[in-house]
Amino acid sequence: MEILLRDFSFILVFSVLAIILAIIVFVIPLFLAPRTKGEKIESIYECGVDPLGSAWIRYSVPFYLYALMFVAFDVDVLYLFPIAVGYLKGEGGKEFLLLLVFLGLLVLPLAYAWRKGVFEWRYGGR
Amino acid sequence: MVAERVVKDLQALGVDLEEVPYERRGYCFDGRVQREGILGVAEAFDQHGYFIEDVLCVDFVNELELVYHFNHWEDPRRFSIRVRVKPSDPEVPSISSVYPGAGWHEREIHEFFGVRFKGHPNLAFLFLHPEIEAYPLRKGHVPIPEEDRKVLEGRQPEGEEESFWINMGPQHPSTHGVLRLLLKMRGEFIEEIEPILGYMHRMQEKMAEVRTYIQYYPNTARLDYVGPLAFSMCFVGALERCCGVEVPERAQMIRLITLELNRIASHLLWLGTYLLDLGAATPYFFAFDDREAILDILEGLTGSRLTYCYYRIGGVYEDLNDGFLQKVEEFIGRMRKRLKDYDELVTGNAIFIGRTRGVGVLPKEMARRFGVTGPNLRASGVGYDVRISEPYAGYRIFGPEIAVRGGCDCYDRYLVRLDEIRRSLDLLEKAIRRVPEGPSRAERIPKKPPEGDVYFATESPRGEVGIYIVSDGSDRPYRLKWRSPSFSNFVSFTELGRGMLIADAVATLGSLDLVVPEMDR
Amino acid sequence: MEVRGPLIRFGLLEELLNLARANSLWPMTFGLACCAIEMMATTAARFDLARFGAEVFRPSPRQCDFMIVSGTITRKIAPVVRTLYEQMASPKWVVAFGNCAISGGPFVFENQYNIIEGVDKIIPVDVYVPGCPPRPEALIEALLKLQEKLTGVRRFPVPERRW
20 to 30 A Cα–Cα from B314, which one of B283, B285, C106, C128? Predict the structure, then answer.
């Protein structure tokens, strides 16, 4: 029980420090930076002219698929971190095999998407 | 030859043609036609494979004269076809259905002179700002009527379900100057391109009517600041042609040497900035370093790094100083070694080839209809170069070999420009051994040019530069029109860019080598 | 457009901040015409503006400190210049590079219809660099003058007159 509490206290200290750092980064410019109030300081930058149309448009599907692939692999990397830490505690052989199976299952949808042509732009939509 | 066949066709159409001396006027055939016949004339030229060089307008106060220049790649005898209209009824049929490039020149004439073109798809104002009151290049004050004023704002984009409009605006790292493109995008593909120019319109043509010839001369260097000597040569050559001034041979060879050095400098700058657009930062520093070597040589001779005022009517300003030819020879050796570096870094680079091979294909027929010239045309398989078809300065003594490739894509345009650097170095090597002794300036030049008009063309690093001067016998030009190569090259992009990915559009726009002030004048 | 100063302000902190700002001024690429080529030559290998801190040329106005206005200001591009200036975050400075940005340059004639004679008619300018186009060394001198305006101390000695 104490070991569990000790491990969680590390996480607590880490998260408190991260939150304090984020707050400091917001607070320092509040005190030290000059503030501009003008007509265009908050407008959208579009090469110096007023932006054409609104940003609420129908985006085409390939953008969404790229984003989906990215998010999936981002989460995979997140799972790899604890595996990397726990890897040292075991013998070696069994963990390596488990890791390969894990990564293999993750690569399968990527290969499927590649074959289906997600990464190519085709004129005329899909 | 082709010209004789066209002459027969034109005479059958009722055009009043006559042959004029090329050495005095700069064009070979001068024709007059009624305004209804201009479409038939354009079709006749199109059938025989002529390309549209320029369309311009001159305001003689009681009538407006439209001049169309047509030329051919293999038989470069220029045709100048004129149409006269009354200012009370300035309407002419448009030839943009036959030559789309002429459609853009017609748009410019519409906004500067008020001539209306029947059948033109889109006569919206291109260059001028919305508060302008009168047509700028008309001799009197002719106010812009209400229905044209509404058109000043340009076409407003209307969104559809699948596409959206995005603005590749005047301040953009990849547009090489202040060029604004409205892109209608569908996903990552471009459906339509609507350019808005005029952000660098510095009234060069109006200024020419207010200043004398000598006062106007420094402006010629500010038109194309990367290769200014070709424009200076054009201006000076036109005046020499119409006044009949004989330029001494020493001056001609000096002009050739400086023109070729300028061509190498311009191609090096293009190389650096094009590769910077594609994402490679190293060739930029190499190219600018080599360019500084050229600028040192030219500064020692002319006194300026960028905007030279070195040529004068009848010769050059100052003779060569000691050591100039020696420095050029050292530079040639240095540049040849450096070209090996460029080949290693860039030419075989897999990423570069992947980005430029097969991208931005400009077929020969499209180039002809838009009037594309220069390395862009030579990369599409056509060996047309003004230095060979209409030699001027020292090119009469030995002409350059031109580099032609057949691939029509961005990679071939890159290879053509690299080849041109090599050919320029060969030409320089021959030229520095053949600079004869003699005066560097003609003895007498007339104070005022005679009445009439004259055309002169030179080959700038971007293509064919032309100047058309109408003189009324005084010391100021009556009308001065520049035929700008970047304008004709750019308007082909509006057709090329359809259906391209936006990254490919950036690569193509860079490979066309545009300089915006000469487009906007 | 009003600028409100920082909440906490004392001498040593201001000096420190100005020193930090002066040594890492990031310019915005706003090359309009011929002077843009000399600006590009200044960043290249021979004249190297990066050794004075102006390392990164950002195209977006949100990320840069000062704007080098190099080239002629036409009536059509004047609202664009104004918009970009307002979109920059304080503190910001402007360098008018070249004769056209100072007072219209060689394009001023009677009854001219398209240029604005000088960029200081639209936005406030801190350093003026005359020339048509000015040499790259002039742009380096302009940067050093801007740094002197911020810190109060001239970093490198003024080149001595030789005539």
Answer: C106
Residue C13 included in any domain: no
List the one residue out of C91, C85, C88, C89 whose CA is nearest residue C150.
Answer: C91
CATH, residue C130: 3.40.50.12280
* C33–chain B Cβ distance below 8 A for any pair: yes
Closest residue in A to C7 (Cα) is A31
Residue C160 falls within a domain, yes or no? no
What is the span of the domain harbouring residue C132?
Answer: 25-150
Rounded to whole angstroms, the Cα distance separating B314 from B250 reads 11
* Sheet-wide strand order for B189-196: B164-168, B180-186, B189-196
Instruction: Name the domain count of chain C.
Output: 1
Query: Is residue C11 domain-resident?
Result: no
Using CA atoms, how far residue A123 sits from A116, B38, B182, B186, B408, in Å, is: 16, 39, 19, 8, 22
B2-153 has CATH 3.100.10.20 classification: no
Each residue of B367-378: pLDDT tens digit?
A: 999 999 999 999
**Contacts with B273 from chain C: Cβ below 8 Å:** 40
- Torsion, Cα B131 B137 B141 B147, to 10 degrees, reads -50
Answer whether CATH 1.10.645.10 is correct for domain B224-482. yes
Token pair for B489: 């090259």
CB B440 within 8 A of CB B316: yes
Contacts of B157 in chain A (CB under 8 A): 52-53
Query: In a structure prediction context, what are the per-residue pLDDT tens digits for chain A, which is 126 residues long?
Result: 677 788 788 889 989 999 999 999 998 888 888 877 767 677 777 777 777 766 677 777 778 888 888 887 788 888 887 777 777 766 767 778 888 888 888 888 888 888 888 777 776 554
Q: Which chains contact C through at least 3 pairs of Cβ atoms less than 8 Å apart?
A: A, B
B267, B283 Cβ separation under 8 angstroms:
no
Q: Is A49 on the interface with B (CB under 8 A)?
A: yes
Q: Where exactly are the structural domains of chain A?
A: 1-35, 61-116
Q: What is the DSSP string of B445-473?
A: --SSPPSEEEEEEEEETTEEEEEEEEE-S
